[in-house]
Amino acid sequence: MLHQRMHRWSHWLFTRLLGCSVILAAVPLLFAEQPIVAKLVLDDTIQPVSQGTLQRAVQTANTSGAATLLIELNTPGGMLESTRAMVGAILSSRVPVIVYVAPAGARAGSAGFFLLESADVAAMAPGTNAGAAHPVLEFGKPDETMNQKILNDAEAFLRSFVTRRSRNAEAAQAAVQSSHAYTAEEALSEHLIDLIAPNEEQLFGMLDGRQITRIDGSKITLHLAGARVEQIKPTLRETMLGWLVDPNIALLLLVAGALLIYLEFNTPGTIVPGSLGTLMVLLAIFGLNLLPIRYTAVLLLVAALVLMVLEAKFGGHGALAIAGLVCLAFGTLTLVAAPVPEMGVSPLVAIAVSAAFGGITVLLVRLAVRARRMKARLGADALVGKLASAMEALAPEGHVLVEGEIWRAVASQPIAAGAHLRVVGHQDYLLQVEPLDVSGPTHSTS
């Protein structure tokens, strides 16, 4: 009896241990099979900084074992050259790329429409829109021939991957030709996107088991059920560059740096203003170098500075200063040839900076000119033109009180004690004085 009980107990223990061993062995396999989705949130204008961020995200997804790269997109658009590089990175990615316009209220405007259409899977959240992708020339207005060439080039660029993705090329071209824009529902009905998903989890559920065709014609089945999302965050360098590429920040750095450098020239040896100003100007130049700059605007800024210096030095009754402020305002407003309004300088910032910079520049230059025109005077030279009082009768010499000091003085006529005088010159240390009211009578105590 005891033997049977021991046998049953050992059998029960063996089965339980065997079950636990199977479960423990299966856990690593379950985690190993869990798909990984690398995710990049691109909520910015399209420019060299966002271009570098996306290219790094594609490289990370290709080398980290991720099943796919998810780009959550919200952009008003941006620069065409950066767009071409970003589309090239998406098309050449070894792992499938999903571009998802989200959250509700987001858009894939202008250059963002190219990114959306280049993806292996194009998706949008409800309440989003895409399109309005007509190219805008950065420098001036082109003639009809040049405008047509730019338009044809953009359309061919879009068709080169839209047709390979089996999407509606005609509807896509309408976004370029006539700046047509689409809601999420319209984009789906026009076969510009593959699906509408309200959130990330449902997006993965709808794509799980779905077969897609890559740009090279190969087919792949997505397995995204229960995927683990690993977000790709911007590096410190990208964060700093993103801050510098803001045209308003770059403009403020440029203006503030220029004023600090001027202060250093005006009072040499202070070191700190010159060093800080140089750093700020260099940062501004670096930031502006990443943006499309109008060189006519740069010439306007130089002309504004010259006009304000001339106003301060020669005095133009305000005419030169006003002309300088106008040049400065137009220069700052048109400094960045923004393909989208979000990349331009804010009018409020431009006007405020122009007024402040113009006023400070005129004031500083006038102070500097006045200081250089004034001769350094010490001793008796410094007393010429000062008021004095006769401590005793001058007949014609005597002692006077000037600026709290007692000096020996000589007058051209007898002066009574206590009379108010003015110093008109000196010979060595003997002051030459005259009464304040030369036409009035003078009295002598002698």
Description:
The chain has 14 helices and 16 strands. The chain is α/β, with parallel strands linked by helices and 446 residues long. The protein folds into four domains: 29 residues; 202 residues, Alpha-Beta Complex (2-enoyl-CoA Hydratase, Chain A, domain 1); 128 residues, no CATH class; 57 residues, Nucleic acid-binding proteins (OB fold (Dihydrolipoamide Acetyltransferase, E2P), Beta Barrel), CATH 2.40.50.140. Helix 12 runs parallel beside helix 14. The radius of gyration is 39 Å and the shape is elongated. The N and C termini lie far apart (153 Å).
Can you describe this structure in just a few lines?
With 446 residues, the chain is α/β, with parallel strands linked by helices. It has helices at 2-33, 48-63, 80-91, 111-118, 144-162, 169-177, 184-189, 200-207, 236-244, 247-266, 272-289, 295-314, 319-333, 347-373; strands at 36-42, 68-73, 97-101, 107-109, 121-124, 129-131, 181-183, 195-196, 211-213, 219-221, 228-231, 387-390, 397-402, 405-411, 420-427, 430-435. Helix content is 49%, strand content 17%.
